[in-house]
Amino acid sequence: MAKDLRKRSQSKIRSKIRWGTAVLLLLLVICGAYDAPAYYNSLAGKISKSTGIGIPQLSENPFRLGLDLQGGAHLIYQADTSDIAESEQPAAVEGVRDVIERRVTGIGVGEPNVQTNRVGSDYRIIVELPGVTDIKEAIGMIGETPILEFKEPNNVPPRELTAEEQKQIDEYNGDAKQRAETLLKKIQDGENFEDVARASSEDRTTKEKGGYLGFVGKNSLYFQYYIWGASSAEGDISQTVYDGEDGYNILKRGSEREGENEVEASHILICYLGSAGCESPQYTKDEALLKAEELYKQANADNFAELAKENSEDTGSASIGGKLPPVTKGMMVPAFEEALMQAKVGEIIGPVETQFGYHIIYKESEAPSKEYELWRILVKKETEFDILGPQDQWMKTDLSGKQLDRSEVVTDPKTGAAEVALNFDKEGTELFRDITERNVGKPVAIYLDGQPISTPTVNQPIRDGKAVISGNFNIQEAKLLSQRLNAGALPVPIDLISQQAIGATLGAQSLAKSLKAGVIAVIIVMLFMILYYRLPGVLSVVALLLYIALTLSLFKIIGVTLTLAGIAGLVLSIGMAVDANVLIFERIKEELNEGKTLKTSIEEGFIRAWSSIRDGNVSTLLTCFILMGFGTSFVKGFAITLSLGVLVSMFSAITVTKTFLRFINPWFKEEANWLFLGSKKNKNV
Amino acid sequence: MIDVINNRKIPFWISGAFFVVSVALLLFVGLKPGMDFTGGSLIEVTFAEHRPTITEVQDALQSIDLGNVVVQPTNEMGMILKTRFVSEEEHQQILENLQKAFEVVGNDVPTEEQLTQEGYSGVVLTNKEGEEQTLVKDKDGNFISPEDLVTKNKITEERVETIGPAISSHLRTRAVKAVIIVMVVIILYVAYAFRRVSKPVSSWKYGMTAIIALIHDVVITMGVFVILGKYFDVEVDIPFIVALLTILGYSVNDTIVVFDRIRENLIRFGSNKFIENINKGINQTFVRSINTSLTTLVVLVALFLFGGDSIHYFSLALIIGILLGTYSSIFLASPLLVVWQNWSQKR
């Protein structure tokens, strides 16, 4: 009775083991098919065809590959949030993320991934672009913030110098003057002018040439020295230090020669729609010509100034009767110059066409001018300009791309040129209205990325919040600008602080190499296990295959991104997975050596080896968990795959191997034979 | 049975010598920090037909103010340039200079017939000035400039990595933090594993000995990398740190297993034959220690030989560390335990 019961419970256990083995083998097949659906599908297709049994096909669900294996770019930007209140910084950085996401949509083959990350007080934006081929373009799309600004003429006078700054200038200049006088003294004491210039002049362009300026005419940059030259004789050196605009000068005069003829003239300009610099065109080109011809007929020496005042559209000269400053050759546009130089003194000519429009010109006088050969030694002065910097022609307004509602490409109905139309939001409409009201008759400037692209003149206030940028766009440029404006400006500036980009070819090579290394590693490990541990070794190999299939399936299901480091981690975990089997088999061997039966040895071996297996894996897992928090993709990839591998290996090495060993156990006698662990018989210890 | 304990002087001398030399190397020569920690840029390019010499490449980049440019040939046609951190503009400038210097634009523009045969198609467009222009489309319908068709020795950029100062300093602090945390966790773990007090050796002595063995493993691994850095320009980067930490996690358990066995023996057979029991424990775990390390080393050697450049030195560090870990848990940790025990008994 008791024996019967034992038998029954034994057969129950037996069937349990059989079932377990079958389930594990099935799991191996399913996981294998899931890992490599292409192979499975072609095989299933063949079987279905030859047997007529319909075997379901699996859908392809590829592994998620990291950028280092499929190629792509990993960019890290730092957001400059220094101008924003701390409480608003997270929102602003999220805004950056949204804008970048819109800009990169559609770049590359995979789905771009944009994340924000806070490190201490720094905000970073991480952009991952899988499969992107033109990284330069991608970086351009992300980084090139279309900064749209509206500026008005700057009427604010430059600030006054502070007393301290004035004192600083005075001190510097006093010193400069003294230095210049010392130099002058040296020359007066007989030192060569050129040598002193070479040694001490602060005029970099002439220093090497001993201070030689060349022949200086009335209209040259050096007009103030020309005056000194006119009052000196050949070989003279200035008696005192000459106080010029840029500094203290010691001058020397050489020979004199006849210069270009100097001409005095007046002109009347009639400009037209489309001519350069025409601020308020009244005429078309044909009308302008007619008007100019009419004026030419009227004009004579007496009424020329009057006509110019009334009609000339050269804003600079009209008010003074069309009078131009004395000119020599090379100072005017070619067409104007040619006509003027050919005309006789007292003659009125016209209409002359230039890019500015039609000119009527009155040549008043022509006289030869003198030019003097000059040298100079310069000791620089400090001026207000050095401290205050250049006065900006334009002044910033509050209106920018931020208040833009949308923009679109339009064409100018008259010229057909592409333009970008802007529609402001409520705030922008008000700002734009104020700006245009303030500046009627004056130009405003539209800046794109720090460059003025258009400076239209305001004819009347614009109150509907609509503006048009008419830069010199072609249709593509206009479209791109409009797109970029619509994508939105970045709320804060960003700076590319790290980029990693890997070409698809290199990625594929890395993948192939690491897979090759993995396959070789697995084969050697399997051979080792079979040769060293015989039959149990074979079972551990099956367990290892199941381990690999299961881990890969898990990677797919959880969506682990496989990187090179990740594959390294997986391969390493394969090496570690068999460690558990080694521990178990060694323990079984020990138990057999102590004279226990095969069955007892197997059971004992598993129980006794467990604590070692657990301890060994715990320390590796602990390290991996710490590494996962490290943040770098290399470290994360490695730590995730290694820890997943270690966890799965605990299952495969223990449960799977145990089931298999129990399954084959009854095939053998009580004692282990040569198939087991190399011991033919129980050796005596 | 190998009498490890009574022959302990040999490994003590060997390990001691290696340890002292490694510490000296670390102090006086130092590891060569890689781009991860110093910041910088790495650009890998391949040349289609002819690879210029290192000096030619450096000369081509002379006009850009890059400081010291390290140029290393790689594979058959590749070259790796290492410089300070470059901005995107400078990066493009570098590529442009290389293209100007080494790409050759031929003047044998292919005929229409050749183009059609190769799957290209021409599209005639009219530009703004009303002139006709022929643009060439490739098989995939992308426009390509005629120059591309005749460019010889085309340069392809395979890989770019730039790491700015903000990132590298961040990585440095992160690495230090990770090392400290792993150390602390391992020490706690060892303390936990030996929490049950046993006679005659107190539990904390097991723990301390295990940690001394670990320090030995890691310091000598670093010593080897000082030499590699000095003579083979091997740089220490994030993967190296990861390797060191993995060694810590992996090797500590080798020692724990041996100690476990010793403790078990001491409990089972009594502490009278102290040295004999320890020797027995070592020998019982000997094959197991060797075999577990062997399987792990096999896969690491495969990765080292075939896994490609990026994980080359990562696997090497792991190989050295695991070899040392196995050695130290057998020949160093247990004998140290005996020495310590004898010493404290004498006092």
TrEMBL record, chain B:
The keyword Cell membrane applies. GO terms for biological process: intracellular protein transmembrane transport; protein targeting; protein transport by the Sec complex. The keyword Protein transport applies. Gene3D superfamilies: Multidrug efflux transporter AcrB transmembrane domain. GO terms for molecular function: protein-transporting ATPase activity. Residues 175-339 form the SSD domain. The chain crosses the membrane at residues 12-31, 175-194, 206-232, 238-259, 286-307, 313-340. It is found in: Cell membrane. Coiled coil: none annotated. Its main location: membrane. It is a multi-pass membrane protein. GO terms for cellular component: plasma membrane. Keywords: Cell inner membrane, Cell membrane, Membrane, Protein transport, Translocation, Transmembrane, Transmembrane helix, Transport. PANTHER family: PROTEIN TRANSLOCASE SUBUNIT SECF, PROTEIN-EXPORT MEMBRANE PROTEIN SEC. HAMAP family: SecF_B (MF_01464_B). Belongs to the SecD/SecF family. SecF subfamily. Part of the Sec protein translocase complex. Interacts with the SecYEG preprotein conducting channel. SecDF uses the proton motive force (PMF) to complete protein translocation after the ATP-dependent function of SecA. NCBIfam families: 2A0604s01 (TIGR00916), transloc_SecF (TIGR00966). Forms a complex with SecD. Part of the essential Sec protein translocation apparatus which comprises SecA, SecYEG and auxiliary proteins SecDF. Other proteins may also be involved. This is Protein-export membrane protein SecF. The gene is secF.
